DNA sequence: CTGAAAGCGCTAACAT
DNA sequence: ATGTTAGCGCTTTCAG
């Protein structure tokens, strides 16, 4: 302890938080001594003593998906200067199909964070509610009844995507999605609806994971199979990229032979050589709204749940075009 | 407290760590009661009491760069089942040029992690040594004298990359790098050396950040300027992508008009439509080696420093070709 | 096998 | 403006 400065521990504590009640002189002396002694306050102990953690736990599904980096950036921006720090926990999409946030969220709970921001939490609502019982939860990109939810209108996004393909004249459009988790079905539902409204048969293919690799494998099967679609609407950009890859491997050109649309509009979608038509949900904004909600929740644990739905935007690039051999 | 089960707190503690000395029956009763009461052990308090954190702090420079996701995956894999958890802290490349790991590492220190794994730590060695004084440090992708270092032979990688371009017949090759930080100069040095050996003038351009955006801007200037190079060797894939983007904007084709080589061989480099020639440093392996080193350090704080250098591998794809108008 | 007591490094009243 | 005294929720000797 740096109580060798001649002052009490209280003063040191006050000095470090530059709380009022410490003369400028003393504070200076304390900080100076601390530096000299290599002393650093122990936040762990501080949080424990304070019985309330100025920490938000951020659960990210998959670091390999750039969307989560955007969400993180947004959260950080919102928390900047608030003195609240964030501890991250990342999921493992590849493990047992990526279901159940399990351990990851559990570890946040054990670390006694004051609030958890969960980005695209997987698994059934039940396990979430359980977590939410222990600590306030802010759900990003997924609406959960009774829980702070910051999300984008998935139905509108999927409708725009499907509509775009329909407008181009496509009739054999498949929707490539992942495991059937709650809270991830809106896009699929809207797709089915749009197809139905157009008098076309929907065709949904579920890959075992929401990843590039899984999508690539599933797409290879679809494209080699009978009745090849002329367009694929993928659940996210990573999966859309997997579709492109499979198409390329089979000698199919995008968009001449196959149109592909993604979801997220991550930066990779915008790259030269990719130019993927995608639905932009502004992950950064989602993240900062979630950060703000988390701060509010920390301040008032019992306030009404936030329910913030934003409108996504379809960004048309060159991965979509009219189907090959238009009826003639 | 779940001391309502009729046993003492000691027992509860033991039961949860399934330490020996608790009858199977009691343990079961305790766990059951805990579940019923929604009790969860507080790791914060536990770490504090134990005076030794079973936690590694992982510092990642930039979530937008997929390499860090790979490193993370490697670290996690190495830590799996060890009971050691990891808390992440991510840098902010975009802030004030991305220098100084500052706050991020500081926050790890304050959280009293048992060891810090720093992936591509930026800033001068001095600030690192300071951190290393407080807690053991494992440096990934950067060699630091006297500190556990797990890295790839950058000089060899850069030599291979430059050599490849030279072999193709290029003579005007620029190396695009970022701010001049210690520990990031090997690639540049090897490039200069290779050029020199070939009797060609080196030309190094430093962008203000190691990012896509910064590279794009810098590349635009280079490509529009006089004496346009026929090849660019970028410090990493993100930057190489920025170069491609700038080239495309100017109507230059890759590789016909401009060859581009990156570094890291992140997945994005392999994508259809990109196919970037790049140097693979196997970030996943680097990560898991770092995780193992961290574990060893936790077990024996005073063992000799690990110094593990691996050999990178040049992966040639279609972003490189002979220069336009070969001498004729 | 089980329990009592001390203490980890801090914060938060409550004095002085 | 500064010092005192209790804990925070756990782990850890050390005794029953």
TrEMBL record, chains A, B:
Q: What positions does the domain HTH lacI-type occupy?
A: 1-50
PANTHER family per the UniProt record, alphabetical: LACI-RELATED TRANSCRIPTIONAL REPRESSOR, LACTOSE OPERON REPRESSOR
InterPro entries according to UniProt? HTH_LacI (IPR000843), LacI/GalR-like_sensor (IPR046335), Lambda_DNA-bd_dom_sf (IPR010982), Peripla_BP_I (IPR028082)
Give the region (Disordered) as residue ranges: 303-328
Q: Which GO terms describe its molecular function?
A: DNA-binding transcription factor activity; transcription cis-regulatory region binding
Domain of life of the organism encoding this protein: Bacteria
Sorted alphabetically, the keyword list is: DNA-binding, Transcription, Transcription regulation
Cross-referenced Pfam families, in alphabetical order?
LacI (PF00356), Peripla_BP_3 (PF13377)
Q: Does the keyword Transcription apply?
A: yes
UniProt protein name: LacI family transcription regulator
Among SMART domains, the record links this protein to:
HTH_LACI
